[in-house]
């Protein structure tokens, strides 16, 4: 005797959308007191980092950013860019990390083609952004990430966004909802945009944990630019395992080798050329045992 069962409709009892936001939501509780971020004198736990991400999301919402809006970011690998990998998707908005090495004409094209509603920019890169605005003739609202190397021209600052009361966690209703928009470098023509959805980013991060055999609580040095495929999804993967992320801002051999020695780095991702530069550079200190590229 055969029985036939109808497939039930999706509801909260049997379905949760896959999203890397769930990694940080969990890390905020499970890894609350463990170190999450080190950048110069800045030290933050996972609970502090998650709260900042939720505050920045609330600040962006107050600026009118919502579902489907593109938020462009022009910034090196520093904690603010890491936080935006969670803050922007929390609103249902789309994160567009712009290659900081591009010429103003290409940056102008990306800002136009992506239909960006807002630009968050490190003030050291303000001249590049100003030039891009002059080329495409479009001025967008700007949020300054304050840096001593440059003067910004934004309507507000990232620190002001981070001062908002944290909003609550909310996973997307549809895991195919756009999360990030990445562009090629345009070496053979106009840059081409590629969309990540929440499900894809979730699965890629989980695959990184399995494929890299990441242990719990690695000390990870942020080298691969987060404008390259969102740092190969590593910013999301580190929340799964409660990693400790080390930021140097500039990926120079001297800074990277010093960070390896000073913080006991166990993992990092980088292009072969970067690894070669580090391998052939003078070593200021012995590298920690077990460091892996």
> What is the CATH class name of the domain at 47-215 and 224-244?
Alpha Beta
Task: Give the radius of gyration.
Answer: 20 Å
The CATH topology assignment of the domain at 47-215 and 224-244 is: Rossmann fold
Classified in CATH, the superfamily of the domain at 47-215 and 224-244 is: ANL, N-terminal domain
Shape: globular
The structural class is: alpha/beta
Q: Give unreliable regions as ranges.
A: none
Major beta sheet summary: 5 strands, mixed
- Strand segment count: 12
Strand ordering within the main sheet? 2-1-11-10-12
Query: How confident is the prediction overall: mean pLDDT?
Result: 92
Which oligomeric form is depicted? single chain
| N-to-C series of helices and strands | HEEHEHEHEHEEHEEHEHHEHEH
Task: Tell me which CATH architecture of the domain at 47-215 and 224-244 applies here.
Answer: 3-Layer(aba) Sandwich
What's the number of helices?
Answer: 11
Helical amount: 25-40%
Summarize this structure as a short list of keywords or feature phrases.
single chain; alpha/beta; 5-stranded mixed beta sheet
């Amino acid at each position: 005797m055969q029985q036939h069962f109808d497939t039930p409709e999706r509801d909260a009892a049997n379905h949760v959308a896959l999203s890397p936001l769930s990694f940080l939501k969990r890390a905020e509780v499970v890894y609350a007191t463990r170190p999450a971020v080190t950048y110069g004198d800045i030290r933050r736990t996972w609970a502090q980092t998650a709260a900042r991400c939720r505050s920045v999301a609330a600040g962006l919402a107050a600026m009118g950013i919502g579902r489907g809006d593109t938020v462009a970011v022009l910034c090196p690998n520093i904690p603010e860019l890491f936080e935006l990998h969670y803050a922007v998707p929390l609103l249902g908005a789309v994160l567009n990390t712009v290659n900081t090495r591009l010429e103003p004409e290409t940056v102008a094209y990306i800002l136009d083609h992506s239909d960006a509603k807002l630009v968050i920019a490190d003030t050291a890169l303000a001249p590049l952004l100003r030039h891009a605005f002059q080329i495409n003739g479009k001025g967008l609202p700007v949020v300054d990430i304050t840096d001593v190397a440059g003067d910004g021209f934004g309507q507000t600052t990232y620190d002001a966004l981070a001062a908002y009361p944290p909003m609550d966690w909310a996973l997307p209703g549809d895991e195919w909802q756009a999360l990030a928009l990445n562009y090629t470098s345009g070496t053979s023509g106009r840059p081409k945009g590629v969309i990540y959805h929440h499900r894809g980013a979730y699965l890629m991060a989980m695959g990184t944990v399995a494929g890299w055999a990441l242990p719990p609580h690695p000390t990870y040095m942020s080298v691969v630019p987060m404008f390259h495929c969102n740092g190969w999804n590593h910013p999301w993967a580190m929340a799964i395992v409660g990693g400790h992320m080390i930021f140097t801002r500039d990926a120079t051999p001297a800074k990277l080798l010093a960070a390896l020695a000073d913080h006991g780095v166990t993992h990092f991702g980088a292009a072969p050329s970067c690894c070669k530069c580090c391998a052939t550079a003078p070593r200021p200190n012995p590298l920690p045992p077990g460091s892996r590229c």
